[in-house]
């Protein structure tokens, strides 16, 4: 039995959450010593900051997590029942007033569980249940806190369309519903996960149960000390013991002249204010705990790029991405708008309601009129957010506006398949209707505006053909940094020696996300060029950049690292290992650790890491594949085959496992069995060009050239820029005597690789020159 699938709390002791006024120990960060300040609690702030405290009290931050009491629990626990996929759950109170739920446990049987904490408050509230090993699991049956008139005041399931039983890792008792793993960092102040890998247990601590003052401002003891001694008037340059997070929202924005359409900011806001929001309001992974208040996100976290499935091809939100990655794309952000210009940070309320918020900076007579929005005044279509911030529901009932604040582009919906605000509202219409309507209102010039979505979509669909456009976008000073970093990320599979100059330029970029992506562009190149490009970034001021550089150079011998950089590499590797240790409860964190150990030549440690990932999640596909490949490198094919077949018992329909097994069987000389596995992989993942190519090669090797060519032609239609497929088509058609077909595919290859001498020579031969 897995330790995260234990018995109900009534049958086993539970490690309580620990709270402390003392600052927990930090992970080692040798580049910068930890701050001396400690956490003092929101109550210490109240005496001097009464208005801010009053605004915060009752806010979503203040109510982010609470003890489950009659005052905090919103759900119906009066013997209310809820049915989901054949499981009848009941919400009730025990004889002593404890809130309880009877639902399916880790063994699939109904058991009674006491509610320990509430999680969130509106528009839904979830509940945490204590399990052995310091775990708190999030119940996926949530309470809809909206008014009944809006469909609320009911129990509902967060995965209404999925069948999730007790064997699924997404079951509420499983690994991915673990509070400390998934949620805790952003719902409490000064949280330390406290995961112990050896015992697979948690001793999680926090200073305050909710999102309090020091979550954003940082530990305040030094500020309290300053306040006890300082006397007015206070000098602006005084070190008050806390970073300044002010945005000057109420005075910074002015219309430069009478009739000007847009207000401008008098001077840029200190980015620390907005950075304090990013760590929790973004789709990201964690690199370190206790990051410095106001520091750039990449100094403590790794931001998700604008790629599928999280984003649509043009960068609009798709999965839950928590606002930050969207806002970083916006013209608002590029022109100096901060979160606090629109949101009061303590209450989280808007600075103004409706269009009045927008017309603080956008001239009302120009934009809040029918000639602009083309809708009836006072209606939904006349609201700025309807067109520029269309909402999408997450967690079933939580409507989240898209903070990329974009102009609707129904023409991109036609070419890219991305949504647009027009047809999201007019659901009975098509994008071409919306585009034609906009032509009538605004002329056709709007269609000519270039949009980075076309290039990002090409990067995901056109293979190496998109490389020049991706490099151009990545280096464009006019594009938002997150867009440039995404372009560089999409370019990574197609880099070649000719892209090194562009890569080196991106390594010097001012934005850390671009530098991180540029380091990824160095991964396929030779060790010398990796060292030349990456070694300087081992001492980068941003943790995320140092970690990426250390990972990139982990397999380079000391003798090839400049002597002046060796200490920096060692320090950065220690930081990387600390980050991986922090993610040791994640299967993906263990896969990353295994990959690092492989690059370091520490095979036994790599095997242990991959095995641990499988222990944590038996459906961790990457761990099976990487472990099998590790065994292969050691010549232990029987162990490799066993682990792949073990994975297929758990995941019989996984294409990656079938493909890996096919490669193994090919090495064993079992070509017929291998072909069967390749065929299954291609069938299960029809969009994977590599799997179609490998199956075609296997068919050709089996003497089935006609079948192979038919498969390759179909794959070429789906992936017209895939070089492996083109190469196979050229070779097989040439072998079959179809010189015209081979020449046609060779010309396509020459378009994709115009500077490749071998392609030029092949084309010359086929043309008879």
UniProtKB/TrEMBL annotation:
Gene3D superfamilies per the UniProt record, alphabetical: Flavocytochrome C3, Chain A (1.10.1130.10), Leucine-rich Repeat Variant (1.25.10.10), Tetratricopeptide repeat domain (1.25.40.10)
Alphabetical list of InterPro entries matching this protein: ARM-like (IPR011989), Cyt_c-552/4 (IPR023155), Multihaem_cyt_sf (IPR036280), Multiheme_Cytochr_ET (IPR051829), Paired_CXXCH_1 (IPR010177), TPR-like_helical_dom_sf (IPR011990), TPR_rpt (IPR019734)
- SMART domains xrefs: TPR (SM00028)
* Keyword Acetylation attributed: no
**Origin: domain of life:** Bacteria
Keyword list (alphabetical) reads: Signal, TPR repeat
Pfam families in alphabetical order: Cytochrome_C554, Paired_CXXCH_1, TPR_19
The record's region (Disordered) falls at: 1-25
Domain (Doubled CXXCH motif) spans 338-362
Where do the Cytochrome c-552/4 domain residues begin and end? 45-68, 180-218
> By its UniProt entry, which PROSITE patterns does this protein fall under?
TPR (PS50005)
Quote the biased-composition stretches of kind Polar residues, using this chain's numbering: 1-12
Q: What PANTHER family does the annotation carry?
A: C-TYPE POLYHEME CYTOCHROME OMCC, DISSIMILATORY SULFITE REDUCTASE SIRA
The protein here is known as: Tetratricopeptide repeat protein
State the organism named in the record. Candidatus Accumulibacter phosphatis
């Amino acid at each position: 039995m897995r330790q995260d699938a234990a018995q109900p709390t009534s049958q086993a002791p539970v490690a309580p959450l620990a709270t402390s006024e003392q600052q927990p120990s930090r992970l080692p960060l040798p580049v910068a010593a930890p701050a001396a300040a400690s956490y003092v609690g929101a109550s210490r702030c109240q005496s001097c900051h009464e208005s801010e405290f009053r605004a915060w009290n009752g806010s979503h931050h203040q109510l982010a997590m609470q003890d489950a009491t009659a005052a905090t629990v919103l759900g119906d626990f009066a013997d209310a029942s809820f049915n989901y996929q054949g499981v009848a759950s009941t919400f009730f109170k025990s004889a002593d007033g404890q809130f309880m739920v009877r639902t399916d446990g880790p063994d699939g049987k109904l058991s009674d569980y006491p509610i320990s904490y509430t999680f969130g408050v509106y528009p839904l509230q979830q509940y945490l249940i204590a399990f052995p090993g310091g775990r708190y699991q999030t119940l996926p049956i949530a309470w809809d806190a909206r008014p009944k008139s809006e469909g609320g005041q009911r129990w509902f399931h967060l995965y209404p369309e999925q069948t999730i039983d007790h064997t699924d890792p997404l079951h509420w008792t499983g690994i991915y519903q673990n509070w400390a793993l998934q949620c805790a960092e952003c719902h409490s102040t000064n949280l330390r996960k406290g995961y112990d890998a050896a015992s697979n247990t948690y001793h999680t601590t926090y200073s305050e149960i909710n999102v309090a003052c020091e979550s954003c401002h940082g530990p305040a003891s030094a500020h309290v000390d300053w306040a006890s001694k300082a006397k007015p008037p206070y000098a602006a340059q005084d070190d008050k013991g806390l970073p300044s997070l002010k945005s000057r929202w109420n005075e910074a924005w002015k219309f430069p002249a009478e009739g000007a359409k847009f207000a401008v900011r008098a001077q840029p806001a200190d980015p620390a204010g907005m950075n304090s929001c990013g760590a929790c309001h973004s789709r990201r992974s964690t690199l370190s705990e206790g990051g410095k208040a106001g520091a750039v996100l990449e100094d403590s976290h790794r931001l998700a790029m604008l790629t599928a499935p999280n984003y649509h091809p043009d960068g609009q939100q798709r999965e839950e991405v928590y606002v930050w990655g969207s806002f970083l794309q916006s013209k608002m952000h590029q022109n100096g708008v901060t979160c606090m210009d629109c949101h009061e940070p303590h209450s989280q309320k808007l600075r103004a309601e409706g269009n009045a918020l927008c017309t603080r900076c956008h001239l009302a007579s120009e934009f809040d009129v029918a000639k602009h929005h083309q809708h009836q005044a006072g209606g939904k279509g006349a609201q700025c957010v309807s067109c520029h911030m269309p909402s999408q529901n997450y967690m079933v009932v939580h409507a989240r506006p898209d903070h990329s604040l974009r102009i609707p582009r129904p023409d991109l919906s036609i070419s890219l398949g991305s949504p647009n605000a027009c047809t999201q509202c007019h659901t009975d219409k098509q994008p071409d209707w919306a585009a034609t309507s906009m032509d009538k209102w605004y002329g056709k010039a709007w269609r000519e505006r270039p949009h980075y979505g076309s290039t990002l979509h090409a990067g995901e669909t056109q293979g190496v053909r998109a490389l020049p456009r991706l490099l151009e976008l990545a280096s464009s000073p006019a594009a938002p940094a997150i867009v440039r970093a995404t372009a560089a990320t999409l370019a990574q599979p197609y880099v070649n020696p000719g892209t090194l100059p562009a890569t080196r330029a991106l390594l010097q970029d001012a934005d850390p996300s671009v530098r991180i992506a540029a380091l990824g562009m160095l991964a396929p190149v030779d060790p010398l060029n990796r060292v030349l490009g990456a070694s300087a970034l081992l001492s980068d001021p941003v943790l995320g950049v140092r970690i990426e550089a250390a990972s990139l150079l982990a397999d380079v011998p000391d003798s090839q690292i400049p002597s002046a950089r060796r200490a920096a590499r060692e320090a950065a590797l220690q930081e990387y290992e600390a980050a991986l240790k922090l993610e040791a409860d994640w299967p993906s964190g263990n896969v990353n650790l295994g990959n690092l150990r492989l690059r370091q030549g520490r095979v036994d440690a790599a095997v242990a890491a991959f095995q641990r990932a499988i222990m944590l999640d038996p459906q961790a596909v990457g761990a099976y594949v990487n472990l099998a490949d590790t065994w292969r490198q050691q010549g232990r094919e029987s162990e490799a085959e066993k682990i792949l077949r073990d994975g297929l018992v758990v995941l019989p329909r996984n294409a990656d496992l079938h493909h890996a097994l096919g490669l193994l069987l090919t090495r064993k000389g079992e070509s017929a069995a291998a072909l069967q596995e390749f065929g299954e992989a291609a069938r299960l993942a029809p969009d994977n060009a590599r799997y179609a190519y490998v199956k075609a090669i296997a068919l050709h090797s089996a003497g089935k050239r006609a079948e192979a060519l038919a498969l390759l032609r179909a794959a070429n239609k789906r992936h017209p820029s895939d070089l492996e497929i083109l190469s196979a088509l050229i070779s097989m058609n040439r072998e079959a005597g179809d010189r015209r077909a081979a020449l046609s595919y060779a010309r396509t290859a020459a378009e994709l690789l115009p500077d490749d001498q071998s392609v030029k020579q092949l084309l010359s031969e086929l043309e008879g020159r």
